[in-house]
Amino acid sequence: MNLAPVIKTSFKQQMLKAREVAIIATVNRLLAEKGFEAMTVDEVAAQVGIAKASLYKHFSSKEELAAAAMVGVMRRAQSYIRALPPNAKPLDNLRAVVRWTLEVKLAGDMPSLPSQNSTLRATLIANKDYMDGLMDVSDRLGAWIEAAQASGDLNPDLPAIAILYIFFARACDPVLEFLRMGGLYTDEQIVSMVLGTCFEGLNAR
């Protein structure tokens, strides 16, 4: 029986990988707190506890830093979506994905989306990992939306693409922070309220 050779990772490689993980985690948090435009490379290096020159050994620009964080969140979303029950109602899976998005945002782990004229936007469009992930997520959600419309669980008169973008917009919804700042509701109550307005609307039943 042939056994595959065990590839050992050197201590230096392990340390570099650990530093890269710490950098991306810091960038992710800063993007969630203040957005791409306000974040600086100096700030990232200081919070990770390394020199800026060391940071540039991992990422060549501020845009690459932010793109790495965005790719990480996209992969988390893909993993979550793939783990959902394949036989569940499409509407239930859509609600689960939006709930996950809201919870990640409230936890401070959802990077703010770049503006239309941001240099980060151009970097993301050119990033194959990010775009492949975005297309995968869009295709999966789009299929569930169309199935939910066909079953009458979602309004069939709305374009599926409009519903998809409404769901995506929850990743940068300021309502979450406004409700939390008021101090009147728990995070679970906030998530439930936003989910309700997203799926059931504001009309009295």
H/E element string? Answer: HHHHHHHHHH
Overall, the morphology is globular
Rg estimate, integer Å: 20 Å
- Strand fraction equals under 5%
Class from secondary-structure proportions: mainly alpha
The assigned CATH architecture is Orthogonal Bundle
- The name CATH uses for the topology is Tetracycline Repressor, domain 2
CATH class category name: Mainly Alpha
Tally of individual domains: 1
Proportion in helices: 55-70%
Report the end-to-end length measured between terminal Cα atoms.
67 Å
Annotation, overall tally of beta strands? 0
Low-confidence stretches: none
CATH superfamily descriptor: Tetracycline Repressor, domain 2
Total DSSP helices: 10
The chain-level mean pLDDT equals: 89
Q: What characterizes the major β-sheet?
A: none
Protein model, in words:
66% of the residues lie in helices and 0% in strands. It has helices at 11-34, 41-48, 52-55, 62-82, 90-106, 119-125, 128-150, 160-169, 175-182, 187-199. The chain has a single domain (11-199), classed as Tetracycline Repressor, domain 2. α1 (11-34) crosses α4 (62-82) and α4 runs parallel beside α7. It contains 10 helices and no strands. With 205 residues, it is mainly alpha-helical. The model has no long low-confidence stretch (mean pLDDT 89).
Entry summary:
With 205 residues, the protein is an all-alpha fold. It has ten helices and no strands.
